Amino acid sequence: MADRAALLIAVETFFEAGPPVSYAAADVAELARALPAVGYAADRCLLLAGHRTTKAAIDSHLARLPKLIGKPDSLLVLVITRGFSQKGRGYLACADSILPDLSGTALALADLVAALHKTRCREIALLLDVDTLTLPGEMVPSGLDEAELMKLFEESPSCVALLASEPGERSFESAQLKHGIWRSHLIEMLTGKVRSGVGKDGSLTALALHSFLADAVPRTLRRAYETPQEQAPVLFGEEKGLMVVADLAAVLGPGGNVLDPARMKRVVFRAESVGKVKDLGGFRKSHSLPDRANDWARKYVNRVALPDIKADLDNMFEAVREQFGFKRKDLDVSAERDGLGFIRAPDFEYTVTVSVNPEDPTEVIWRREVGRLADPAMVRSEGFASVFGTVLNRLVFEFAVPVDVAEFVDRIEEAPPEGVKVSVGSDSDTAEVKLTGFTGRVTVTRDAVEIEGRAGSSAGLLDQFLAFLQKFAGVGEPKQLGSHPAEDD
Fold this sequence. Notes:
Elements: E1 4-10, H1 24-34, E2 40-49, H2 55-63, H3 65-69, E3 74-86, E4 89-92, H4 102-105, E5 107-108, H5 109-117, E6 123-132, H6 146-155, E7 159-163, E8 173-174, E9 179-180, H7 181-190, E10 203-205, H8 206-224, E11 234-236, E12 244-247, H9 249-252, H10 261-265, E13 267-276, H11 295-304, H12 306-324, E14 332-335, E15 340-344, E16 349-356, E17 363-371, H13 382-388, E18 394-398, H14 405-414, E19 420-424, E20 430-435, E21 441-445, E22 448-452, H15 458-471
Parallel strand pairs: 1-2, 1-3, 3-6, 6-7
Antiparallel strand pairs: 3-4, 4-5, 7-11, 8-9, 10-12, 13-17, 13-18, 14-15, 15-16, 16-17, 18-22, 19-20, 20-21, 21-22
């Protein structure tokens, strides 16, 4: 296990620089309690809050930091405060920063980074939850300088930075959560309450942590505020993003290697059906049916299918609200002109698409999917079964890197797992796996595992998938499914 140290700074109240940063001290205290369980030495987790957040106290700790933490392999630094920029330099307000001389009584971001480099740690992750500060005489709140941030962390050989929000953008809190929103999700991740992006060995990289925060924060923000708000977490120094910031193996518990946390969010439930172009709501008798599956046919079907997609979303919207208890503002709904519609809920995403059937251009293929699952347990809920159970009959898990199907089959035939039979085509591109006790079909291709069963048994499909993973835990690496097609690589 790597030798890890941490420095947590929470400037919650200010003498005169600005209003308090809500929940800052409580949040860092909770994080400090969590860090020893995820690979950090308890005696080298330093916490500065309350009266220890004056300029002199912070400067003193930074100057003595190499002695205070020794020589760890990895250093995690979290700073919660308000920030501003002057003449292209970013500053972090201290408790005693004064309005007549803000830059002189605040901590320069460049000075903080320089102090961290003096520890000579090979890997430094700097987490900045820096809310905006309005400078005297200014109407618009200030924030850190983006150009300086890019320069500092692109040039740094060892430091990556995760920001709770874009420079100049507010970092919001939630009275219901009693946390800063970004910090609440940081705590979730570092206490093992969520598993998204965690490696098979329990390792959490800076890039994976940022990806989770960038996805989770906007969703929580929409639920917390009646009026639309913007907060977009940012990563600087992305080339160092693969550094490991925590070891979650202990807090995730047994079974992590089989039920890989990243895999579970990379599962999508799916159903496909065929319909007639002439049955679409936008079709008129004066229209000509497509005779080829070309670009014109695709655009035509996208247009005439729009009323049907909207109707599907309307029906699903009401069902989701009724069964899961979501409020209107919890759900993002969109019917696009490219044959796609989606409902994004806090815990999942439902998508519906209509496309030309390449086998018969007078037909369309309807595809409905549920992905981005925040918690696999919800698949077993009554609400999930009621809304999606009669629709979905497949579960798909894609690989990030194509699998050698022939090698997969050879491995099974050399040491057959109990209750497993496998058949393969002559071209070795597709294998069908039969498991004792399951009447559905498990298909392995170069790109995915697909579990197909009967509609109305989503939980059964999930159980079958878990059974497959238990027997073939090492097959492939996952990539995200269930996202908007425009976002996929």
